[in-house]
Amino acid sequence: TKAKPPKKRYSNTNMSEEKKEVKEDLSRMKGAYGEKMIKKLKTMKVAVFGLRGSGIETAKNLLLAGPHTVMVHDDELVQAVDLGANFYLNESDVGKPRGAACEKELADINPNTYFSVHTGEITADLLKQYSTVVFTDLQSQWPMSKLIEFDKICTENGTKFIWSSIFGMHTSIFSNFGKKHEIFDKDGAPERSIVVTSVESVPAPYEKIDDFLLAHLPSYFDVKKMGYSAKKEWGVKLLEEKAGLKFDDKRKKSLTVGEILDYAEGNPATANKGKMVGKITTAGERHLLASGDHIKLEEIQMEKKDSGNVDTYKYGEKATSINATFEIKVHRTNPRTFFIGDISGLGSYVQGGIGSQKKVSVWMDYESLEQQLYAPTIEAGVQNFMKFGVSTMLHTGLVALMQFHEAKKELPAILDKADADKVVQYAKKLAEEKGMGLDEALVTKMAKFARTETNAIAAINGGFVAQEAMKQTGKYTPINQFIHFDAFELVGDGGKGDRKDRYGHYATLFGEEFVEKAHKSNYFLVGCGALGCEFLKNIAMMGLGCKGKINITDDDVIELSNLSRQFLFRRKHVGKLKSESSAGVACEMNPELKGGMNVHKIRVEPKTENVFTNKFWTDLDFVINALDNIHARVYMDGKCILHSKPLFESGTLGTQANSSVHIPHKTPSYAEGAPPGEGQGIAMCTMTNFPYESLHCIEWSRAMFGQMFEDGPAAYEDLRKAGVEKFLEKCEANEGEGLAKLQSALKWAALAKKSSLETCVQLAFDIFIEEYRNKVKDLISCYPKDTKDKNGTPFWRGRKRFPYPQEWDSSNDKYIDFIW
To answer: What is the structure's pLDDT at 34?
Structure first.
């Protein structure tokens, strides 16, 4: 199959205009992903096989991201129930191949990506054309043996292989990025900075309790064969016998392995005498670094001068220089401390020190699907600890379903007891022969509902899988190697399983009563941006409120840069209201929404309470927030508290997201549950005199901008409009700020009289001299570099870094940029 070229390419006659359009389109993505990833993304070629709920979500998300090529394939015929998860299908598509039915809508998402639909056989030559291949769902033409074959072909040709599936309320994802996959940025987080408060040379921490026991027990003890309890018991005995510590029986039982090692490392008699390392303590509550990270240390003064020129030291390596880059190991329990190489030859710590994280490439190896099926590596970071251990049970159910599918060439029939029993038999055999975990009730549910899917699970799956495919660029760490997620606690015995329309799978999973209640809902969706578009799509798939009221509002208009993540919008919508446009597209996805759709074009705030009245709030069943600022969230939270309405809250920041559910009288409100520190300010003395984080500089610049370009002009406008007498009365009435306001107004009045380019340049120059030269000189004249407190401790240490005044230099580009 040959990919169709993008609909809009650069032309010689209008290249500058179109380049500007593409740049604006990618501006938000560049902020989230970075320039390096975007460049690699533009060369990536992805194939997506299967276009049920998981596949269509994956393809949509990939096209929004804009790789070089996206090809999709699905020759299976559309069924009416597919309309409950695939938002690009309508009733007229029933009986057509899914790929062909979705082609037009998918092609329209991103005109700058090569897009095509493949039909027919999947061959090795086809797979070799793509850098990443994604298989979704367990369709009849892809039994387990075929998926293993595809995975092998991809591995042999350096193609990344991803497979995902949905079985009712369970979804799983497998990722194989082959051998020596390079990751240049493991988490995408900004490089962190630290301030050093102390540096010590200490014995290296023990890696594990085995190392502690081997170092201090006689050689005839076989530590490897000891059980967990025995290791703890001997660890405590060693602390009492060698370190002289005493514990009562209750404390002995409560001691953790980590605590035992902390005690051991803190006592000279039990410390690790094998090697020495540097121990760095940082300012603040936690450094937020991880073992394996690299930190470049600077401005640290030790008793002995640096004598080496090594740029980077591995953890534990003998170091001849402290001001270098170190691989670190974080402290087991202290979030302010980490360890570096051996600095025992550099003497004692004197003062100073800052550090900045350096992202370095790592290479990882991944196993094949065949290897991982019966001895899986399950990603620990995506587990529900309320259901600890369920992932291993889900994996057993997954493999059992694959074995059933391999034998029968189809999945178990919906709610079919005989088929479910057969899957359980496969699972029991896996438990006996492979030692895999087993929960028969869970496997039974997986089997009975294996053919069903909901848009909610598909949306979760498609978000994960599309992001996983983009990790081919080397940014972010791929899944290692399976993840499992389920929500079967929402499912009872299920419905009858005989409904065949777009809501058929919802009725099968949750029953007809649930579907009817969902359809009669009256709710309020606030915000129609990136999250709002996704919510409206989910609403359309479920028919939520189609027989009740769907109240939505957003006063914002669509911009070109919105199109890379707000998928309901196309170029034809640019300049139009988000609420009207998103509602129109949602109604196209599910025409049944038209009867309940109620579109507003205004903000929800005190000024609009004549529209959103008490009756309006009282009639609601619940509220969904899709907002982008804290003030609106707090206002909505207050309204939900006042009227006792459930609130579904969420937000995004780049590739990160959060969600919270607030139920009246059962859970904390949004305001009560706000993250600690949110909205708290920075002390003014820290921000102006002793900044030690980039955030302090940002907040200082925001404050300065307000003083320069908001407060002053506003004071002048007040003087001009009110007149001198009334303005002076206002200033006299406000003793605290009146004088400053008067001085600011007079300053801007003088500038207004002689407005010119020269005046502006002179003003900028005066600000530079005052802020970066004079104020710094004032500060260091009060606190010279060698200042010490009454205890003899240097004043300039830790968070307080000695500043240097800046003298004007017209050859310095940064200074010129500040002026302009």
So the answer is: 83
